[in-house]
Design brief:
- This protein has 340 residues and is α+β, with helices and mostly antiparallel strands.
- It folds into two domains: 242 residues, 3-Layer(aba) Sandwich (QueA-like); 78 residues, QueA-like (Thrombin, subunit H, Beta Barrel), CATH 2.40.10.
- The chain is 18% helix and 27% strand.
- Strands 5-6-7-10-9-8 form a six-stranded antiparallel β-barrel.
- Helix 5 packs across helix 6.
- It starts with 26 loop residues before the first strand and ends with a strand.
């Protein structure tokens, strides 16, 4: 299977630059994965497509304000750090711009409150740095850091909370699980009242989620690795729903990848933490997932390949071309799709 099989033409003006005023008033494309039939709705209409006995699975990760602007101590040259992954309490894997100034041993200062020293060079040019500071690291980061918006968003985000889900809880992501941005607390309450179970998993989203597939044969693509956790109580909710014939509906590709990573061959989940680099593409047999709520993804990305595994390649490409024709808004702050 080729990367180019997942290409579609996306006009730049359809890339959403800012969130809508009301989270649940994004557009919603409803796609029948078996027939390819398409309906056009508003996101809050998702309530009509959820049934009593279903289980909605949400990723409750929280995005770190992971972009830091500082200076190199020796030269005072401006530097940008992007925190990717915590290795231990004060050691992080980071992206540094400009990278050539970040040699092993180099030191950098951020707001005179945070010092970073490069101690190693990691994969694909990432730096391993050790931070020193007085106080609580998370509080300093909250004060000095900004949201690491994807490269295709060029406008400033006025309210940092709009790049967090309303149920975000555990800090650790370099990017938001964006399908969840459409939910309000009121909509989630209505979903519960309908008899839909809500379960949570945690997967800390890495910037690898935006990494393009650079090989033509998709089997040669190396997936990024991300840390996940699923608690026993949440695993039990999902297992019980499945046992009673309800549908398991993850919100976002991150929740989907977590469930499919944790499940055994019979589709049963256990409490577990670990790292996953699962790559889901057409031909994959889903063990847990029955339906999916997701945003519209980049052409030729691993994410469009994942949704194509659920719908079939022809159905997903037809849906995406329809979304372009109908001027849906794409990517992180864009519109949503319910694959039923």
């Amino acid at each position: 299977m080729k990367t180019s099989d997942f290409y579609f033409n996306l006009p730049e003006e359809l890339i959403a630059q800012k969130p809508l005023e009301k989270r649940d008033e994004s557009r919603l494309m409803v796609l029948d994965k078996n027939t390819g039939e398409i309906e056009h709705k508003i996101f809050k209409d998702v309530l009509d497509y959820l049934k009593e006995g279903d289980c909605l699975v949400l990723n409750n990760t929280r995005v770190l304000p992971a972009r830091l602007i500082g200076e190199k101590l020796e030269t005072k040259g401006k530097m940008e750090f992007l925190l990717l992954k915590r290795i231990d309490i004060d050691t992080w894997e980071v992206l540094v711009k400009p990278g050539k100034r970040a040699k092993i041993g180099a030191k950098f200062s951020f707001g005179n409150k945070l010092i970073a020293q490069v101690i190693d060079i990691g994969e694909e040019g990432a730096r391993i740095v050790k931070f020193s500071y007085d106080g609580v690291f998370e509080e300093i980061l909250d004060e000095l850091g900004s949201m690491p918006l994807p490269p295709y968003i060029t406008e400033k985000l006025e309210d940092k909370e709009r790049y967090q889900t309303v149920y975000s809880k555990h800090e650790g992501s370099a990017a938001a699980p964006t399908a969840g941005l459409h939910f309000t607390k009121e909509l989630l309450e209505k979903i519960k009242q309908k008899g839909v179970e809500i379960a949570f998993v945690t997967l800390h989203v890495g910037l690898g989620t935006f990494r393009p597939v650079k090989v033509e044969n998709i089997l040669e693509h190396k997936m990024h690795s991300e840390f996940y956790t699923i608690e026993k109580e949440e695993a039990d909710k999902i297992n019980n729903c499945k046992k009673q014939g309800g549908r398991i509906i993850p919100v976002g590709t991150t929740s989907c990848r977590t469930l499919e990573s944790v499940a055994n061959e019979d589709g049963v989940l256990q409490a577990k933490s670990g790292w996953t680099d699962i790559f889901i593409y057409p031909g994959y047999e889903f063990k847990v997932v029955d339906a999916l709520i997701t945003n519209f993804h980049l052409p030729e990305s691993t994410l469009i390949m994942l949704v194509g595994a659920l719908t079939g390649k022809e159905n997903i490409l037809n849906a995406y071309n329809t979304a372009v024709d109908e001027k849906y808004r794409f990517f992180s702050f864009g519109d949503a799709m319910f694959i039923k």
